[in-house]
Amino acid sequence: MTEYTLNLSIEELEKRTHKDYLMTKKFLKADAPEYLELDEGDKQALKHLVRAADIIEKVNMQLDNADNLSFKEYLEKEIKNGNRQAELTKILFDAQKGVNAIDTMSNPIFLAKEVPARAGKGVYPADLSKDEFHGILIKMLNEGKTDKVRAILTQRSVVERDGDELVGIDYIDKFKDDFAKIADELDKAASYSTNSDFNEYLKLQSAALRKADPMLDAYADKKWASLQDTPLEFTITRENYADEMTGTVIENPELKNLLEQNNISPIPKDFLGGRVGIVNKKGTEALMAIKQYLPILAKNMPFADEYEQNINPDSDAKQTMVDVDMVQAAGDVGEYRGGITLAENLPNDDKLSLTIGGGRRNVYHRQIRFVSDMKKLQERLDEILDKEQHKYYLDEADHWFTIGHENAHSLGPRHGNEKLGKYRNIIEENKADMGSLAFIDLLTKLGMYSEEQRKQIIVTTITDNFLKSKPTFSQAHRVRTVMQNKYFAERGAYDIIDGKIHVNIDKVVPIAKEMLAEIVRIQIDADFDKAEKYVTENFIWTDNMELIARKLQKISKTLNGRLETELADKLLQE
Prior knowledge:
The protein is 49% helix and 13% strand. It contains 25 helices and 13 strands.
C-alpha cells in the first residue's frame, strides 16, 4: 500500500470540518415522501441506479487523480488504526471527492503532501509537462501518425506513455470491468422501472458502456435528451471543465498549424458524474413555461444569421427540462470544490448526438438550490445591498436566472469554441449568463415574467455576482462573474454607495446585451488571441469587489461543502 503524508494539521482539519466552516447540502432522506410515493418497481430501479452512480464515482476518481483511490485506501487503513488526522481528512476527501481541490475562498486544498495539482489531472501521465506534451504531438504528426494524435486529443480517452510517444485509450476500454458493472446495474434498473421511455434510454446507455463506440453514446444521449415525463432521473454527466492540458495545444503555433492541416480539433477530456433523482412534477411544470419562447430567443441572438445554433428558430425547440429531487450526485457532478452545480444543460456542443438530430436537456437540482439558513441570507443583504432594494432580492429569482442561463447554453454558435483553448469555458459560461440577463425585458414583454419578477431577477443576479474572494483561472464559473462585475461597473449597471450595492435596474439589460454581442462575436471568430485579450481585460479584481468580499467573509465562514445522501446510502446497503 502506498504511504502518504497528511498535509493539513489537526487544528486546520478541526476548523474545516466544523459545521460553521463545512456547508452541508441535504439530499432526500430515507423516508422522503417523494421516495415512498414511487411505484415499487421504480423503488427497485432506483436502488440499481444508485449502485451504478457509485461505480461511476470510482471511475471518475481515477480520471481526476491517479492517487485518489490509493489515498482513500490509505485513509481507511489509518482510520482503523485510530488516526484522528486521517479521520478528519477523510471527511474533506469525501466532500471534494478527491485528494486535491479548492475551497470557497479559491485557495488550493492538498490533502497529501506528495500529490500536487496537475493540469492533466488523471487523464494524462503525471510526469508529462506541457512542453513535452506539445513536442511529442509535433513529432507524431510530422511522422504521419494522425489517427493516434486524434485519439489522444478526443474527449473520451485516457492518455498514457507508449515508449517515447503517447497513446490515447478510450475510457470504455481503460475501465472495461467497471463500465460493464455499471451497464449490468442499468440493465437491472430497466427490468424494474415502470417507464418504457426511461427503460429504452437505460438499455441504450448500457450498450454504450460495453463497447468503445462513440455512436452508441450518441444514440443514448439522443434518447436521454428527449426524456420529459419520467418518474426517475439518471444521467452519466460528461463535462470537460477540469482538463487544463488538452486546450494548451493551440497555444503552440507550430502544433496549432499541424492540427489544422490534419483537421484535428482538440477537445478537453470528459470527467464523469452520476446523477440520480426523482422528477418533481410541479417544479418541472414551472420550468416548461420558457420552452415556447426559445425559438424567439434564438432569433434575437446577436449575429444569429452567421451561425448554426442548437435551437432552430423555425421549428419546435429540441429542449427538454426537469426539476429533480436529488438522491445522489456522484463523481464529477457531486464534487464540492469551491461550490457545486445548481443545474446542467447537456449534451455539450462537442457531443456526437447533436449531429444526428439529438436535442439537449436541462436538469435542475432542487436540494442544492435550497437556502438552508434564511437568517444568514438576511445578514448578508443587510451588509452588502442598499436597504431600499431588499424588496427586490428573492432567492427564487436566482433559480429563474439559472433557467435562463441553462437555456442560453443552447443558443449561440455550436462550433468553434474548441479553438478558444483555456478560455472556451469562461467565454461560454459568460455567454450563458448574459443570454439570461439580455432577454429579461423581452420575456417580460412576452408574459413570461411580471414587472416585479423582472426587477427581482436583475437585483438578485447583480447582488449574487459578488464573490468572497478572487477566483483562479481554472474556475470558469467564477472568472466570468468578475468579468461581468467590472463590465457592469464601468457602464453604470450598479454603484457602490456607502459600502453597499445599488443596482441601476433599467441599465442592466442593455449592458448585458452589449456584453453578449461581444462574447458571441468572439465565439463566431473562434480566435484564441481575441478571447485571451477579452478575458484578460475584464478579469480584474477591483477595490469595490474586495470591499464586498470582505463583508461576505464576515457573514459566511464556509470554506468547504459536502453532500448528505441518506436515501442513497441506505439503498447502497440493501
